[in-house]
Write a structure and sequence with these properties.
Elements lengths: L1 H32 L6 H33 L5 E7 L10 E7 L5 E9 L2 E10 L2 E2 L6 H10 L1
Antiparallel strand pairs: 1-2, 2-3, 3-4, 4-5
């Protein structure tokens, strides 16, 4: 009697294991169905090499972006414009000052003064928002402030 109980338990256990084996096998074949019958280990190996390549490309891209950001601080990025009338007459604000600054407030200020004889153009270097060689006029200071 004990032998029959053991054999029935054993066959029941075999049926359960067979069921799970069939489920696992069908799941495996469903997984490789879209991969043109490659083996799982080949697919995983390909994914790992692709991941390594992508990581390398991402690190190269980060390095290039950081270099571009560092270089962009030296380009003119800020522009300020102030129109004014230098002579106080009622003929309008035909003169203007334009400031061209980089990311660290270095650059130049160009002053265009309109007179009846023509236009006079003056330029001054700007270092950290202040005149480097010459002091900035009030309108030039306003142009630098607008550019910030």
């Amino acid at each position: 009697m004990v032998l029959y109980i053991f054999l029935s338990f054993f066959f029941g256990w075999l049926i359960i294991l067979t069921y799970y084996l069939i489920q696992t096998r069908s799941h495996y074949f469903r997984l490789i169905e879209r991969t043109k019958k490659q083996r799982i280990d080949e697919i995983l190996e390909k994914l790992m090499t692709d991941d390594d390549k992508n990581s390398l490309e991402i690190s190269k891209s980060k390095t290039e972006i950081e270099k571009i950001i560092k270089d962009s601080t030296t380009h003119f990025r800020k522009v300020g414009l102030v129109r004014f009338n230098p002579f106080g007459r009622t003929e309008g604000e035909k003169s203007f000052v334009i400031s061209l600054l980089d990311g660290m407030n270095n650059g130049l200020v160009i002053n265009f003064i309109y007179t009846h004889e023509g236009i006079r153009v003056y330029a001054k270097k700007v270092k950290e928002g202040k005149g480097e060689e010459y002091q900035l006029a009030e309108e030039e200071k306003q142009a630098v402030e607008k550019a910030r």
